[in-house]
Amino acid sequence: MLRQDVVANVWPLKIWIPAVSVVVVGLLAWLLGGSPLLWSVLAGAVVLALLCGLVGWGLLWLLKRLTLKALPLRLAVNRLLRQPWSTLSQLAAFSLSFMLLALLLVLRGDLLDRWQQQLPPQSPNYFLINIAPEQIVPVKTFLAEHQTRAAEFYPIVRARLTQINGQSTDGNKDEALNRELNLTWSEQRPDHNPLVAGSWPPKPGEVSIEEGLAQRLGIKIGDTVTFTGDTQEFSAKVSSVRKVDWESLRPNFFFIFPAGALDGQPQSWLTSFRWDNGPAMLTQLNREFPTVSLLDIGAILRQVGQVLSQVSRALEVMVGLVTACGVLLLLAQVQVGMRQRHQELVVWRTLGAGKSLLRATLWAEFALLGLVSGLVAAIGAEVALAMLQTKVFDFPWAPDWRLWVLLPLTERCCYPCAAAGWGCVC
């Protein structure tokens, strides 16, 4: 006899989950002082979780529209779709946590290694800066004596961009306007700076601008830009736009002037070279030219790799906690729904369903949840990686097959195992 009047002595998930979420958000806001970054991250996480849940729900809906021959699969899909709150919350929690975990694992090593592999084999690994004009010839001679050749020497003048077409740049939050820029002059266009628009070389009173900065500030050919240096204010008309490869590890500049345009400003010089034969020559270089600054790109890259590794390990712990919370959510939902599940099992047994069919249906339900969550996590991780590769790192997009294989299989195994460990699949 089925007793419909018995009420489980537990709060429903529609009360528990919002209540716990409010408490967690309140604690974070109290600890971080209501930082705008906190609310941005939380809002992004909520939107992402909703998208993951809705995509997973759509996949289950498509499964229902298919002709499934296996009875346990049909019963499992129908039961999942009859419980939208429980199904959506599990899909959102597990797909989001596994997507973030996969992103961290890929970003920690693959992208940095891939960027380093794209560098030219003989790209410079040392920069010399703050070279005085009278030190150019001695530095060239020193490097030649040690069988290494420096790249081109570039003059450096530091100035701040203060006006565009006579309008002040105050209030513009672009990073390039909040600091002094390194300006240079050259008759030869750098070979890694292809011309996008205009003509080269710039004539007296003209200047060439980098494409990205021109787009951000809305500067076009023919516009006038004004700079304030250490000694005076000077202006120039934009005559060309260059595309700069900032990842080439070669000297690059936002603005390149014609020769003689910056003669009235204090200047130093910059160059780069490659050296792989130990620190002895570098020590001698520092001793002979104590005022010249030596910048070790290799050491910086190693330090960046260490920082990324440490940050990713910390984030992995956080994502691991989120995943653990997802497992607890699964177990809580299973426990809360145990009474209803037992009632359904009794009805199915009354209608003639065997124990093997019931067990197969329960396994199929949790396996489908895991498989769909894994697919959603793989889709989300692949989309995020594609955006990072193409928009941030300027890499060609390449699908990662590991995401599409490991994520669905991992969650496909985790769900039934977690449910079995709680004793609901037997």
TrEMBL record:
It comes from the Bacteria. Residues 317-408 form the ABC3 transporter permease C-terminal domain. The keyword Nucleus does not apply. Keywords: Cell membrane, Membrane, Transmembrane, Transmembrane helix. The chain crosses the membrane at residues 15-32, 39-63, 83-107, 317-336, 366-388. The keyword Membrane applies. It is a multi-pass membrane protein. GO terms for cellular component: plasma membrane. It is found in: Cell membrane. It holds the Pfam family FtsX. This is Metabolite ABC transporter in Enterobacteriaceae, permease protein EC-YbbP. It comes from Klebsiella pneumoniae subsp. ozaenae. The lineage of its organism: Bacteria, Pseudomonadati, Pseudomonadota, Gammaproteobacteria, Enterobacterales.
